[in-house]
Design brief:
Helix content: 25-40%
Keywords: Dioxygenase, Iron, Metal-binding, Oxidoreductase
GO biological process, one term: catechol-containing compound metabolic process
Organism: Penicillium salamii
Radius of gyration: 24 Å
Bound molecules: fe (ii) ion
Number of domains: 2
Oligomer: single chain
Largest sheet: 5 strands, mixed
Shape: globular
GO molecular function: catechol 1,2-dioxygenase activity; ferric iron binding
Protein name: Catechol dioxygenase
Length: 346
């Protein structure tokens, strides 16, 4: 592109009040309409943020230095920007907006920074963990659609930490994937495997995001959980995980008891805001029938969960519905259609 041939719209003399219009004007030649819209709104909110907080030059330089450090610590296996997005609640917000879930379906949550693409496909019943110190756990799940029909052939990506609360990628000498696997649901929508009982762990907090949390008097811990990601054409991509409740005493009928609250201090203060009520589960025990069927000792720790996936079409309808409500709440008389605002005349 020859810069001399670009007809840049004229800007006005720069003032605190017209700088926003000027930036939007000079960006207006962008041919990607969605990008232009996102930049327009980003600049508007950024500028209003500075006007509202009366941001000083020193404060903005502190912010820029912080963002620089966030970038500098990133590597192939450490993604500090995802962590930053997570601890600011933006990751869970974006997922909830982009992948809304109707009542009755499994809710999504944040991806987190520890997913990798090298997990290997595993046959039913194999163990995804090779940590001898972990407490063995049998996991038996079903996968259905909103009408209760089993979904076959879904690719399920699963990952968890070892018994010390570390993902495999956090070890310098990592030779291959551990604590992660790929599974496929069978004709009954079932997938099952062996794992270890998850434990709470801190997000990496030796970098700029950790220092931010410390300054805010926030701890870096996440409650015990296991990650699941589901993919099948025609169904909305689902990233979720289940949180574990632990009971020291009592039977499984009292699962939602206050005992858990005493035993797990992180349930209501997850550093990355991932916990949702519908995703909390209890560790049960394999009865004689389950033990025989899945070849584990009776009383073996057991996790069962019924996942419900929604179709792309169901998600798309709900996304449009939610978009109208959200913009109305913001007092904007537009609705978003194909990523762009149009006047809302309904
Ligand atoms: Fe995690």
């Amino acid at each position: 592109m020859d810069p001399s041939q670009v007809k840049i719209p004229p800007m006005k003399d720069q003032t605190v009040d017209n700088i926003t219009d000027n930036v939007i004007t000079i960006n207006s030649l962008c041919e990607d309409e969605r990008m232009k819209y996102i930049l327009e709104r980003l600049v508007t909110h950024l500028h209003d943020f500075a006007r509202e907080t009366r941001l000083s030059g020193d404060e903005w330089m502190t912010g820029l230095r912080f963002l620089t450090e966030v970038g500098q610590i990133c590597t192939d296996v450490r993604q500090e920007y995802i962590l930053l997005s997570d601890v600011l609640g933006l990751s869970i917000l974006v997922d909830s907006i982009d992948h809304p879930k109707p009542k009755g379906s499994t809710e999504g949550t944040v991806l987190g920074p520890f997913h990798t693409h090298d997990a290997e496909e595993m046959p039913p019943g194999d163990s995804m963990s090779h940590d001898p110190k972990g407490e063995p756990l049998l996991v038996v799940c079903t996968l259905k659609d909103m009408a209760g029909r089993p979904i076959e052939g879904v690719k399920i990506d699963i990952w968890e930490t070892d018994s010390t609360g570390h993902y495999d990628v956090q070890y310098a000498g990592r030779e291959g994937p551990d604590g992660r696997c790929i599974m496929r649901s069978d004709g009954s929508g079932v997938f099952w495997f062996k794992a270890i009982t998850p434990v709470p762990y801190p997000i990496p907090h030796d970098g700029p995001v950790g220092r931010l949390l410390k300054k805010l008097h926030r701890h870096p811990y996440r409650p015990s959980h296991m990650h699941f990601m589901f993919e099948k054409e025609g169904y909305d991509h689902l990233i979720t995980y289940v949180f574990f409740f632990f009971l020291d005493i009592g039977d499984v009928a009292n699962l939602r008891s206050a005992l858990y609250l005493r035993n797990d201090p992180y349930e209501t203060s997850d550093a990355v805001f991932g916990v949702k009520d519908s995703l909390t589960v209890d560790i049960g025990k394999a009865d004689a029938e389950i033990a025989k069927k899945y070849n584990v000792p009776e009383g073996h720790a057991l996790l069962t969960y019924d996942f419900v996936l929604v179709s792309d079409e169901e998600t798309s309808q709900l996304r449009a519905h939610n978009s109208k409500i959200a913009l109305d709440k913001l007092g904007r008389k537009v609705k978003i259609v194909n990523g762009l605002p149009i006047p809302d005349l309904d």
